[in-house]
Amino acid sequence: MTDLLPQNIHDALAAKAIEHLHPREMIIEVLRAIQDHRGWVPDEGVELAGQILGLTPLQIEEIATFYDKIYRQPVGKRVIHVCDSIACWSRGAENLYLYLQETLGISPGETTQDGTFTLLPTCCLGLCGEAPAMMIGLKAYGRLTRERIDEILATERAEAGA
Amino acid sequence: MPILTIDNQQIEVLKGTNVLEAAKGLGIVIPHFCYHEALGAVGACRLCAMNFVEGPVKGIQMACMIEAKDEMVITTTDQASQEMRARVIEWLMMYHPHDCPVCDEGGECQLQDMTIAGGHDIRRYGGKKRTYSNQDLGPFICHEMNRCIQCYRCVRTYQDYCGGTDFGVLGTNQRVYFGRFRDGRLESPFSGNIVDACPTGVFTDRTFRYRTRYWDIEEAPSVCPHCSLGCAVIPGGRFRELQRVRGGVNKQTNGFFICDRARFGGGYGNHPERPRVPRVDGAQTTWPEALRALRKRITDLVARHGPGAVAFLGSPRASLEANYLLDSWAASLGSRRIAFDSHWQHDRSARVAAGKLGPRAASLEDIRCSDFILMIGVDPLNEAPMLALAVRQAVRRGVRLAVIDPRPVTLPCAAAHLPLAPEALPDVLEALAGGDIRRLGRREAVLLEGILEQLRAAERPVLIGGPDLLGAAGIERLLDTARLLASEHRPCKVMTVLAGPNSFGCGVLARQGPDFEAILNGMLAGEIKALVCLESDPMTGSSDPARTGMALGKLELLAALDYLPTAAAHHAHLFLPTTAVPESAGVYVNNEGRMLLFSSAMDPGTPISVSGGGDHPPRTFLPATPGSEPRPAWATLGHLQGRRLSLRDIRQAIEMEHPNFAGLSSLTTGGEGKRIADISPPPETAPEIPFPHSEGEGTLRLYAMEDFAGSGELAGYASALAPLRPTPFVMLGALDAKQRSLSDGQQVRLRSELGGVGVALRVVPDLPAGIALVPRLRGTALESYVPGRGHYDCQILSEDEEKT
Amino acid sequence: MKQHEQVLFKNRSPGETAFLETYRKSGGYQGLEKALTKMSPEQVREEVKKSGLRGRGGAGFATGMKWSFFPADKPGEKYLVCNGDEMEPGTYKDREILMADPHQLVEGMIISAYALQIPVGVIFIRYAYEQCSRNLERAIAEAMEAGLLGKNILKSDFSFELHLHRSAGRYICGEETALLNSLEGVRANPRSKPPFPAQKGIFGKPTNVNNVETFANVQHIIAHGSAWFKNLAFTESGSGTKLYCLSGHLERPECFELPIGISLGAVIEEYGGGVWRGRRFKAALPGGASTPYLTAEHLGVGLDFDPIEKAGSRLGTGAVTVFDETTCMVAATLNLNRFFARESCGWCTPCRDGLPFINWLLEKIENGQGEMGDIDMLREQIRNINGRTFCALAMGAMGPMQSLVDLFEEEIIDHIKKRCCPLKT
Ligand SMILES: Cc1cc2nc3c(=O)[nH]c(=O)nc-3n(C[C@H](O)[C@H](O)[C@H](O)COP(=O)(O)O)c2cc1C
Ligand code: SF4
Ligand code: SF4
Ligand code: SF4
Ligand code: FES
Ligand code: FES
Predict the structure, then answer these.
(1) Which residues, 6+ apart, have CB-to-CB distance to B290 below 8 Å?
(2) pTM to 2 decimals?
(3) Which pLDDT score, from 0 to 100, does residue B692 have?
(4) Would you state the pLDDT for residue C385?
(5) Of the residues C191, C344, C349, C401, which should be mutated to test ligand 4's pocket, given the most ligand atoms within 8 Å of the CB?
(6) Do A20 and A60 sit in the same domain of this protein?
(7) Which of B354, B355, B351 is nearest to B340 (CA)?
(8) Do B92 and C356 touch (CB under 8 A)?
């Protein structure tokens, strides 16, 4: 279990769930905690969330698969969400998206060989004023250019310890 | 009551009716998918578009979502609403496979019908198709997700209506998926309903896969024989075998859905060992020969020993008509020795219910509409599964449910459970009926006070009880309680679960007659020389199989009429094959006292799959259908009395003799049935019947309980149900287990008067102390533990202890 | 660039977030004090009603009116919900508020809770706004510490607890009834209305939902009065300021707080620095991805609810996305439609399957494989999706789509005739 959730967080969530009138409300909270720790939510993570909240794995899965920011498949250490919505599109997001694919050598939805980056499209990030924009993990990056992307990838790669 | 106009026709409907239903009332059927009478309107498919020309809402609207109101003027034939419906169908068909010919739903597919009705023929969409992969959902249900049109009916059936938690909706947008977390059998005992609910071929009955097209199957409205509730079912046969059962509609009983025992438990009639030919002294013979032999032997016995030497045993799974003719045959011979259920408590309970329930009888619909439910000594999921669903519908509306029962009564809904030992139930009933509450423990007394308070406050409370733990005495007490709690302004209804589909009818016929106990004594004493069993097997049916076996051994003549390969049929000197329920017509009276007609879906015969040895068509040509000897029991019984009677004649005779059954001969198939009239005075109080349980001492008291798929006589012969039968186990409370140093899951030895058997231990935390429970499981060592017999003294030892 | 009175952006300074100290210095929590000490809940509601504040979440429903339907006087469980899902492309005003001055939301919610007599509140924040969530966490903690939130606020009898809920993506969660489902931990499909959240919201209890910007305005109204608030507007019918988020082909695509009703042209030229690269203006989405396009002839239209509606579009969230003369409107609309198709919750057919159908049609046209009949097919699709779905998501998608065929039919025909996108270089 420790590779899904640190014991202290597990215990805190479990204690909160017992107190909770509607533990269901905590599904996203628990899934996000697992994802924070593990990087994604494997099947065992869904089952663990079910155990903590007194729900069946299916009941968790119904919610987990609704949201695009809960990863139910393995991802790299850093998930790159490239905005493909209108403001970014109008400022060249499509080309940057292709550039990212080229640079990383992967298609959307894939993870780089070294397991560092996963590339996913996302809808508007609320960075339209800084379009084109992307988000790596929970960190926002705007005013993207090819050069800036190279820099960002280098920094993120270094931070990810790859 | 609002009056509205649809397509220039006026209709008045009940307040709250939606416009789609209102149109249906005029015979205007507009294509729709997501709306389902039992599941309600959710406005998901957007197919039921109509044009609202006048009234409070205007324009194209979804008819299912709009309540009918006065002054509405609606059209369904205008261009705009037709265009909308055509578009919706087109959207639904964008990705749909074009392979109806190989689809198991073809021919009875709502999508096919609606596509035609919606006017969509050629696919214009030329983009990529979405595809899904399927899951293995177990032995009962096939999954073909590419056929899904996202109407959400399956999940609304499975989760919302039936309370299942292992199947649901995954994903979003055009990729929503209906399935499980992982491959595996659907866990709900009502899982099969998604086959009926799904309008397309996503969910099909795996046991019926690739067997028959809809237009080739022979179907007829029938009644489920697996318990006493009388749910409407539609069995379907082809090639002389029952191939499937689907749910029928009866709003007073099951509503729209059925349980998996009914759906997948129809195979008893196809059983490979089913006796299909008349037999005399072990040798097969012709009908005339067998009938002559039976008549002669009985006449001889009566001549030699008087009419009292011949006894009769009717059956809760035989039709009212057959039971009645058995009764009249006995009477014509001058014998008063007839009982209708070899299980003594079940027999007595049915008589109490039949005699005293009266207008207080609750239907399943009453339960769904109730506002407080107390269940005592009843385990719906195992004893009468659809009762559990009826209760759930009330609980979904926020109704409170209290359960008093020692068993771990699992339900598909929340309940307050008070686990009391069976011996405490009489005191509880006493207290409920206004007796002394202090006889109970303090904690119990407080809880019971609370229940009583809610019972008094409710406007439509229902009490529910069953015979296995309450016995006839308890049932009677429950009825008294209801009477006391009811007032002129406030009814208090009762449902008594009974043993079989026609227990109530048998209860009416039995009246003051003897019970099987008396007959058994007569047989043991040698006074009774012959027993005629109508579709009943006292060897396994009575509460004391061993003693019954001994008594049967003393008979000069055991005659059996049946369609099951029972022990009695096997040992009978004279055997006459009868038709199984889907092969015959008749009436069952369900536990509410509702007369329900079942009709014949198919003719009897050895399945071609058997007679053809896998080859089809068979290569030998015979003038008669192989295995077609079985005849309806009523026809045979009429014949034996030298009377040529039609069902109609019999029903009229029944009405004459028993005015309660008024209306019997005007029943129609597929209807709601009719409750019997409560006109004959209830029998003077039955002989003081003891409760089925007495205080035991020292050792553990073991009670047998019903199991969903393992206990029923018919279920036992339905091979498809095998995956649902548990391996033998015994349940013990946490404290008792601890005292014996036993733990959950461990293999233990169960010892009682019936011998010793190895079973798995299940520790149930709140099982009352001193109590152990086993399911009756036919075909296993737990077969001889009979529910409703009272307790068996037992010991539970670890396997090692046993050895030392 | 003319400076207008800054209300919501009073404390905004680049790269910084104002917390309690700064906020109080600028007059923060005076509205709350006034409400709790000098006004009855009813008076607060009345003041908000008089202010003419209209919801800033997209639908523009009058806040005072919405509040008047709420059973404020009914005792028992009730909820106040802040909609911070902000996922409509082009929209980032709530983010700006929460990055600059998060206490405004906290105070606005406390006053609103007092007005509606609600004991519990939840702020629903989208996944991508992690920094906003952290700012709010801090603001909530500070307010608790200062006795401005929690039990007996400012020693009154009024108590209010405020929670934060971090979501995990999906635009549909911004639809208020889907948001309630999301909070309950069931799938975030919208619910049918009626019953409205004010009658049956979270767990069937009365619930009031407002947008971040809506709440943020409340304490300013209370502190300075409804007349002052009405006066902030440019237009007679409008009231307050509006956060206009500029994006697209502009020199300066930023978020500005301006008097509501300022003209589209003024916003683009004066604040947005004009169309970029010296190009000409072609079209704009005046209020986010779900509003119909406006073209050059509409540059004089005031960006307020009623005037925009007269011009055939909607103020929506006040997010102005501008397109220059080189933009292919078919491609732009396809981008928008792809967004809506992907974010469809999957509940109802016209949205779930109809939007992908349109994607196919537009892709075909954009790729030069369109046929003349496709335009009719497109119109027929729009006609049968618009207003026919379970919730407003697909209706939003049909906003720009309808204006594409109405305003840019020639451009579509050009695609079909030339068998390629005429604007692609
Ligand atoms: C598809 C869809 C998405 C929406 N997204 C948001 C949103 O992100 N934030 C928001 O405040 N309102 C959103 N709304 C509007 C809300 O349903 C609701 O009207 C609003 O939160 C009410 O707040 P207001 O009256 O303060 O504007 C959305 C509506 C729809 C139909
Ligand atoms: S589900 Fe119906 S329409 Fe679809 S392939 Fe099967 S029979 Fe044909
Ligand atoms: S599987 Fe069947 S019932 Fe379920 S949504 Fe699809 S078509 Fe409807
Ligand atoms: S329009 Fe229908 S499918 Fe689309 S988001 Fe709303 S409810 Fe879901
Ligand atoms: S459109 Fe890309 S961040 Fe808004
Ligand atoms: S039947 Fe009315 S919307 Fe589906």
Answers:
(1) B278, B279, B280, B574, B575, B576
(2) 0.96
(3) 63
(4) 98
(5) C344
(6) yes
(7) B351
(8) no
Q: Is C261 found in the same domain as C362? A: no
- What separation in Å is there between the alpha carbon of A149 and the centre of ligand 5? 16
* Interval between CA B200 and ligand 2 midpoint (Å): 6
Distance in angstroms (rounded) separating the CA atoms of residues A84 and A66 = 20
Domain count, chain A: 2
Rounded distance, CA B8 to CA B4, Å? 9
Chain B: touching chains (3 or more CB pairs < 8 Å): A, C
Last residue of a domain, one of B270, B300, B332: B270
DSSP run (H or E) holding C295: strand C294-295
Which residues, judged by CB distance below 6 Å to any ligand atom, belong to the binding site of ligand 6? B 32-35, 43-48, 62, 64
Please answer whether residues A69 and C127 qualify as being in contact, where contact means their C-beta atoms are separated by less than 8 angstroms.
Answer: yes
Q: How many A×C Cβ pairs under 8 Å? A: 131
Q: How many CB atoms lie within 10 A of CB B338?
A: 25
Residue A72 lies in a domain: no
Question: How far is residue B261 CA from its own chain's centroid?
Answer: 7
Nearest to C350 among B88, B169, B171 (CB): B88
What whole-number distance in Å separates Cα of residue A68 and Cα of residue A22?
Answer: 24
Q: Tens digits of per-residue pLDDT, C74-94?
A: 999 999 999 999 999 999 999
- pLDDT 10s digits, B45-103: 999 999 999 999 999 999 999 999 999 999 999 999 999 999 999 999 999 998 999 99
CB contact under 8 A, A90 and C88: no
Residues A25 and A47 in one domain: yes
**Do residues C193 and C297 both lie within one domain?**
no
Residues of the domain holding A151: 78-160
In angstroms, the CA B48 to CA B448 distance is: 49
Ligand 5 touching residue A123 (CB < 6 A): no
Interchain CB distance below 8 Å, B170 and A43? no
CATH number at residue B765: 2.40.40.20
CA dist B292 and B301 (Å) reads 14
CB-ligand 1 contact for C110 (6 Å cutoff) = no
> DSSP E strands: which ranges in B116-240?
141-143, 168-170, 177-179, 203-205, 218-219, 222-223, 232-238
Give the model confidence (pLDDT) of B591-644 as tens digits. 999 999 999 999 999 998 887 776 666 667 788 888 999 999 999 999 999 999
Q: Are residues C382 and C255 in the same domain?
A: no
Q: Does B60 touch chain C (CB under 8 A)?
A: yes
Distance, CA of B368 to CA of B254 (rounded, Å): 10
Residue span of the structural domain in which C130 resides: 20-231
> Is B694 a residue whose pLDDT tops 80?
no
Per-residue pLDDT of chain A (162 residues; tens, 9 = 90+): 568 999 999 999 999 999 999 999 999 999 999 999 999 999 999 999 999 999 999 999 999 999 999 999 999 999 999 999 999 999 999 999 999 999 999 999 999 999 999 999 999 999 999 999 999 999 999 999 999 999 999 999 999 886
Q: Cα of B588 to ligand 5 centre, how many Å?
A: 68
Contact status, residue C149 vs residue C143, Cβ threshold 8 Å? yes
What ligand has the least distance to the C-alpha of B135? 3
Asked if the peptide bond before residue B467 counts as cis, ω within 30 degrees of 0, the response is no
Between B415-429, B666-680, C324-338, C385-399, the lowest mean confidence (pLDDT) is in B666-680
CATH of the domain at C126: 3.40.50.11540
B41 CA to centre of ligand 6 in angstroms: 7
Do C314 and C337 lie in a common domain?
Answer: no
Q: Is the same domain home to A42 and A19?
A: yes
ipTM score for this prediction: 0.96
Which residue, among B91, B132, B176, would best test binding to C if mutated, counting the most C CBs under 10 Å from its CB?
B91
Indicate the residue of A25, A62, A70 with minimum beta-carbon distance to C183.
Answer: A25
